[in-house]
Amino acid sequence: MATEKWVFMVTAQTPTNIAVIKYWGKRDEVRILPVNDSISVTLDPDHLCTVTTVAVSPAFDRDRMWLNGKEISLSGSRYQNCLREIRSRAGDVEDKEKGVKIGKKDWDKLHLHIASHNNFPTAAGLASSAAGFACLVFSLAKLMNVDEDPSHLSAIARQGSGSACRSLFGGFVKWEMGSKDDGSDSVAVQLADEKHWDDLVIIIAVVSSQQKETSSTSGMRESVETSLLLQHRAKEVVPKRILQMEEAIKNRDFASFTQLTCTDSNQFHAVCLDTSPPIFYMNDTSHRIISLVEKWNRSEGTPQVAYTFDAGPNAVLIARNRKVAVQLLQGLLYYFPPKPDTDMKSYVVGDNS
Ligand code: 2P0
Q1: Whose CA is nearest to atom 8 of ligand 1?
Q2: Per the UniProt record, which residue ranges are transmembrane (predicted)?
């Protein structure tokens, strides 16, 4: 390593993902190991995403991170676990022009500066931690020349936030819960790439951009401790649903996809209600959106739109094609006209048509 001052930087952009079969509940809180498999769709990288720049320099005296322009602490175990795992896999990096060579062992002595931005509300149930930790791990892996495939990187991102492991791939992604205590087989795998089903259009109706009252981490802990429905869901329901969803995705079977997606979202929120004390993530507007979509799907005779809600009131609506998406947007704007400050704004994301 040369002694003169230099900085190496990498910038990466990572989209968030939306689960169609939900992760809710951990069997190991430290390693972040789930009680069931989950399946998600990764959004178009140009829409809801995190952009992270990581830099290393001998001029830095400690690891530091800024999130949306504000410095945050890196002392928590989730950040520490990701940094440790990445550093332990770092390779040699050489820049002949700068005359700098960083050897594997040097990474333990060098410090990092990390700047991360979300282009959507943080902690409002739009999976900001998923894009955030996936982007952090991916950009660090590039900076440090980590020679691991995305599934191995996903096991590191998982230790930052469970859902983050699924954002290392595009398209449809399964997070396999794994069975090993060390979590080495709790990884994400791609089921189908982003071109496989590119008729689908995802619309996110932001019902509220406020931070949620119950974080996912504490909410799922309370559900694991108190909800009998969660036990039934994890053991009896999800394993069958995962197989059915894989089949629906493989065959681009929108009717089955919609039935499974909506039912799974509703069961996840039923688990939240079955938790003591109960957790309410959806609000009246969320319920009205569900009724609207259900009525429309029934009136058409075949499903046109799937809905799913995460740990917040915002609706993720998946239209079977662009024509349906246009009709859906018109319906949303008619029934939920935006009002200043309190309104519901609609964003079109994942328009691949
Ligand atoms: C999911 N959610 O599968 C589910 C559905 C919210 C509802 O993954 O504690 O932020 O960091 O592992 O990943 C949100 O949970 O929780 C989540 P941690 P995470 O997308």
Answers
A1: 163
A2: none
